[in-house]
Amino acid sequence: MSERAFHTVAADAAGRLTDHWRALATGALPVVPPGPPGTTLKALPQRPPERGEDLADILEDTWRTIVPQLVHWQHPHFLGYYPTNNSPASVLAELVTAGLGAQGMMWSTSPAATELEQRVCDWLAHALDLPSRFTHESGQGGGVIQDSASSAALVAMVAALNRASAGRWRDHGTEGRLRVYCTDQANSCVPKAARIAGAGRPVLVPTVPGTQVMDVAALARRLDADRAAGLVPAAVVATVGTTVTCATDPVHEIGTVCRERGVWLHVDAAYAGSAGLCPELRDADARPDLADSYAVNAHKWMRTGTPCDVLWVADRNGLTDALGASASYLSDQSTDADEVVDFKDWQIPLGRPMRALKLWYVLRAHGLEELREVVRHDIRLAVLLASLVEQEHGLHLVTRRLGLVVFRAETDERTQGIARRLAGEPDILCTAATVDGRPVLRAALGSPYADETTVRRAWSIIRGHAAAVS
Amino acid sequence: MSERAFHTVAADAAGRLTDHWRALATGALPVVPPGPPGTTLKALPQRPPERGEDLADILEDTWRTIVPQLVHWQHPHFLGYYPTNNSPASVLAELVTAGLGAQGMMWSTSPAATELEQRVCDWLAHALDLPSRFTHESGQGGGVIQDSASSAALVAMVAALNRASAGRWRDHGTEGRLRVYCTDQANSCVPKAARIAGAGRPVLVPTVPGTQVMDVAALARRLDADRAAGLVPAAVVATVGTTVTCATDPVHEIGTVCRERGVWLHVDAAYAGSAGLCPELRDADARPDLADSYAVNAHKWMRTGTPCDVLWVADRNGLTDALGASASYLSDQSTDADEVVDFKDWQIPLGRPMRALKLWYVLRAHGLEELREVVRHDIRLAVLLASLVEQEHGLHLVTRRLGLVVFRAETDERTQGIARRLAGEPDILCTAATVDGRPVLRAALGSPYADETTVRRAWSIIRGHAAAVS
Known about the structure:
dopa decarboxylase, N-terminal domain, four-stranded antiparallel β-sheet, homodimer, 3 domains, Aspartate Aminotransferase, domain 1, alpha/beta, 16 helices, 43% helix
């Protein structure tokens, strides 16, 4: 195609997107699409075309066939899971990243891609007040962008397995003795990462009764008992802001226990980590001063589109010893001279796009002040929603932490009934979950378009369904 | 920012990108940037800004600071590794994908994202003449987009480990007995995947002397010997188009050996798989009729930007049994009713962007005829380059397969001397590698802007360096 044609169709797409964002902001779109399974499949031809088609037509089809069958994750009534965020700055960066088409597996395969990533990961470490040993500046640790908290957990875990086995793991695998530890409140990606890493089901450390946080004394006992039994404790995964209730494990105390025993501590701060932008929200008990690795999803609460998880490690060699890959076609003078960072050795894949441009655009376009305001704004909205829950006869606030509100009805049957009705409601998306064996409903704030009006409107929809269930 | 402002700055970015592509096409840019390590770091501030900055300024900075320090992977003189491709259709799709900001971990979290991916994976399976059991249509298998051939290999491997251990792997890990097999010609991501999966160093099956392809009889003997020794062979990884010489393992024969022994066969066709678009390039010996999984990087030779690897499996349950993750907050009516596909259970991460839009745009915008022509065009250019090598006194053509040309000088010292000179040449990028212990140079065609003129120009640069090394 001609360059002129691309310019025209890209401008058309930008216009459609701004219209789309306006429709989200004004509540003109449902959150959840109307079609049953198979709706999109039926609308798509069985076979690809032999002859090329016009991009303008494909764009038109996107809005006719695809957009109406998407869930709109940035809709102000989207209260499910945790947010997946976005912003014009992030979208612009994705356009530029794709257009430049760089591949940054090694420093030498796109120097600016690697150095930009080093710098923005340092920027964010500083903005979140993380220990300086997590920075590239320190010369010891550093940050790297992963696609997800899942991959971050897996990457940290294999580094831990390698360290715990003094490098035997690289050649001989897990051999059935290496162990990973977390609570039943860790995100599903944590046991999945342990499984993928060949360590099997993680050891579940009990939570303190009545809370959703790790019992540190129980962790210490279990680590010692396992070691005494000939097992090799390799990694503990703690959470800052659990998925169900946004609970935070006592990271600092856990760090002490792990440090004394030489066990790798990975901290999954996928959602709540962004709150660290605000000094008043930093929690001394949750500081990762003694952690080996720490991960935050910028794509959750930092106006950056998915995927963008930042993983920091205190000891970069711990990571590259486990994940380093060599081959004749990957040898490189700068690498051999140990002058540069090759991010292929900090992640699962060999290849990687230029991952950092998006975060650079977002941090610069918004500035730290505005990103802190995003967090504070969403928390204010969550406080409002929590107060609306509390005013409602027959509903009970389980907890409100950061931007998350968890509530239930007085009986489990009624909570489940409300959840069933909400699952069929196109104008709201909440997530049902379980706390201490009891069903709850979660509402997480985070849409760029949410405000007091949208929260009250969303609540009136939820309230209507609640009222219909006796 | 205002929507109007986004529209303006996106149009600006589109204009800059079209100028950039024109500069690549006309040879106005070097392939490799001039700066030593630290050039970009020095140009970037130490700390992020407190106040937001204008997107137009950030865009300007991108072209001032980042673009000059990138390797241009689509430059016609970029002959390194294998290509990472691109096209206006792919870039447009990235813009739209980012702007819509959908998250498709489950069918219910964005139905169109999942169903579009099912359909385009089926489209591509059909276009590549893959066995029908690899399609979603079949109801048994199906395709899923991964970020890389590395992740595809890892995902296939964990499914294999789970199957080989009859599900024990999920709870107990690899236990030191499960084994993975490949040759020393497999891409570095294959042993890395085995390591990440906790299976340790893979068993290296010998290649047939004088070739770079797996010795099938040796594979069969080794599988049987290992089983007799109490080990559990889980997966064999075969390659269609190896990284160094584009050699292809006898996939069909290997499949017979694996099938008889119940061992999972994964086929890594990252680069050469795209040649299957052309009927005349399909190789009966390489057909994956007996394979369990097959992966092709659309981002290598199919005009689709990175990341876009398509992994097909013959038995979707084999994958989801290994990778399925459940949690109270992930329960879902459509999933429970077994009506839909949840791609979170087909990959490592939990979350995922809408991955298929890009491939949909590319397949439609180009059409199969044009994508076949891309492959044929690049092969014609490789044939031309190979003939230029052969005409050159003192240089020796090692092999020309598909779009890859491998050559060396008459002595290893001279080959290494040429490689050292080329490593410092900004107007060419070749990859040095090793074949049978001897150094070689690789030149892989694949730039959208390459033609006979650029090949002759690139060759004259290489030839000049060769002439300077005695």
